[in-house]
Amino acid sequence: MKKIGILTSGGDSPGMNACIRSVVRTACYFNIQCIGFIRGYDGLIDNQYIELNRRAVSGIIHRGGTILKTARSERFRTIEGLKQAANTIALHQLDGFVIIGGDGSFKGAIELAQHTSVKIVGCPGTIDNDLIGTDFTIGYDTAINTVVEAVDKLRDTAESHDRIFVVEVMGRDAGLIALRSAIASGAEAILVPEIKNDLDTLIKKISSWRKDKSSKIIIVAEGDESGGAYKVAEIVKQHHPLHDVRVTVLGHIQRGGNPTCMERVNASIMGYHAVKALMEGKHQVMVGIIDKKVHYTPFEKATKHIQEINPELLQMLEILSS
Ligand code: F6P
Questions:
Q1: What confidence category does residue 171 fall into, taking pLDDT thresholds of 50, 70 and 90?
Q2: Among 153, 186, 190, which residue's Cα sits nearest to residue 168?
Q3: Within 10 Å of residue 90's Cβ, how many Cβ atoms?
C-alpha cells in the first residue's frame, strides 16, 4: 500500500473530520501517501483533490462537517461517471481507497469496484445509525445529544403551557434517532418507520394520559408513515381538540456541531482500522464497532436496512413514560 485516496459522501455527520484525521495520520505513520477528493464522488469524477499530510488535518478533530466537503452525486449513478471515477483512480495510481459515508455511498462503492481494482474500505458516516455491522455510526451520538438538548428546552415551555409538543427528528428510513433520544429525554411517545399504524395507537394512548400531566413530548422520525410532525399535530388536534399542540422540526441542526467525545474516539478507531484493513488486503468492507470490538462487514450486508427496532427498548420507553 503506497498511495490511498479518501472522500466523504452523502449527508455530512459530526465526527467525519476526526475520521479523516485518523486515516491520514495512520497512513502517514506507515509511509502511505494520501490524497483527499473534494465533494464526494463528484470530486473523484472531476479529479478535484488535495494532498493530505499530518499538518493538513491538524485542528479538525473537534469540528463538525467535513473538511473534504460532501455531496450526493447524481453523475456517479451513471456508467460514464463510474468510468470517469475509475480513470481518476488509475491516474493517481491509487492502491487503496477509504470512503466515509452511509448506505448510498457504500452502494456506490460496490458499483465502483466493477470498474477498478483498487481496494476499497468504508467507515460508517451518517447520523441515522442505519447500517448493519456497527453499534454506532459516526455522527449518531452527537445527533442524539443535539436532539436531547433541544427536547429538554422544549420540555420547559411545554410544561409552562401544559402543551403537547410534536418534535420531528431525522431518520429517512430508520427510527433510531427517535428511539434513543426519546428514552434520554423522557418523551411520552415516538412514531417510527419500523412500526406500522403507530399514529392510531398514539391517538388512543393520548386519551389515557393522566389529566394532570403537564408536558407531553411526541418524537416523530421524519420517515414515519404518518407524514411528519405537522400531519401528526393536525390529526392529534382533530381527535383531541382540547389539547394545545405545537410542532418543532429540528431538521439539519442535528447534522452540525462539535462531535461528542464518544464520536471522536469511535471515528478515530474506525479511521485507523480502515487503513490497517487496506494494508491487510481487505476489500469492500465497512469498519464497524460492535460490543467495543472492531468488525468488518461486507458493503452488501452493511447496506441492508435494519427493519426492526429493539422491541424491549420500545417497551421500556412505554413503561418509563406512562
Ligand atoms: O442521511 C442522513 C439524513 O440525515 C437523513 O435522515 C435525512 O433524510 C437526510 O440526511 C437529509 O439530507 P439532505 O437534506 O442533505 O438531503
A1: very high
A2: 190
A3: 13
Based on its alpha-carbon atoms, the radius of gyration of the chain, rounded to whole angstroms, reads 21
Mean pLDDT score, 153-158: 97
Amino acid at 156: D
Mutate to test the pocket of ligand 1, among 73, 168, 172 (most ligand atoms within 8 A of CB): 172
- Domains of the chain (ranges, CATH numbers): 3-139+259-298 (3.40.50.450), 142-255 (3.40.50.460)
Active-site residue, from 95, 128, 130, 224: 128
Which residues have CB under 6 Å of ligand 1? Answer: 10-11, 102, 126-128, 170-172, 222, 255
Distances (CA, A) of 283 to 10, 51, 106, 110, 141: 21, 23, 12, 10, 27
pTM: predicted TM-score of the whole model, two decimal places = 0.96
Which among 282, 291, 296 has a CA at the least distance from the CA of 97?
282
Interval 235-255 mean pLDDT: 97
Write down the mean pLDDT value for the chain: 96
Q: What is the mean pLDDT of residues 60-67?
A: 98
Residue that the C-alpha cell 411545554 belongs to: 158
Cα–Cα distances (Å) from 251 to 45, 133, 248, 256, in that order, read 30, 26, 9, 10
